[in-house]
């Protein structure tokens, strides 16, 4: 698929993350990745190994066993990373329900 802009990809991305549990697992993986990145800066660089493991591990689990689809990261790694972080920020800021409504999906309770 060819996407003209980030908004088109965001819609595609959210269609692959329609289950609220999938978004929660992505949130957890991103949160742990940020924590491990900070630990690697503050404590020791060994924590860097845990950054991609947590980031992609939680996401892969959610896609295979909850959403039952294939992660879009494989075909679109940079846009997918952008959308993962956007998803995380929407959830942290409490704006996820509004975004779900904007995209025409059923609203769900916030994770936080």
TrEMBL record:
The keyword Amino-acid biosynthesis does not apply. It comes from the Eukaryota. The chain crosses the membrane at residues 27-50, 70-92. Keywords: Membrane, Transmembrane, Transmembrane helix. InterPro entries: Mpo1-like (IPR009305). Pfam families: Mpo1-like. This is Transmembrane protein. It comes from Medicago truncatula (Barrel medic). The gene is 11409203.
């Amino acid at each position: 698929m060819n996407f003209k802009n980030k908004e088109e990809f965001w819609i595609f991305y959210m269609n692959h993350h329609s289950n609220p549990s999938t978004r929660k697992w992505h949130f957890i993986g991103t949160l742990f990745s940020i924590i491990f990145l900070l630990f690697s800066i503050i404590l020791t660089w060994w924590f860097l190994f845990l950054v991609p493991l947590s980031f992609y591990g939680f996401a892969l689990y959610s896609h295979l066993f909850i959403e039952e689809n294939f992660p879009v990261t494989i075909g679109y790694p940079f846009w997918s990373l952008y959308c993962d972080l956007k998803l995380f920020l929407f959830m942290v800021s409490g704006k996820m329900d509004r975004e779900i409504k904007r995209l025409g999906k059923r609203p769900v309770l916030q994770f936080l």
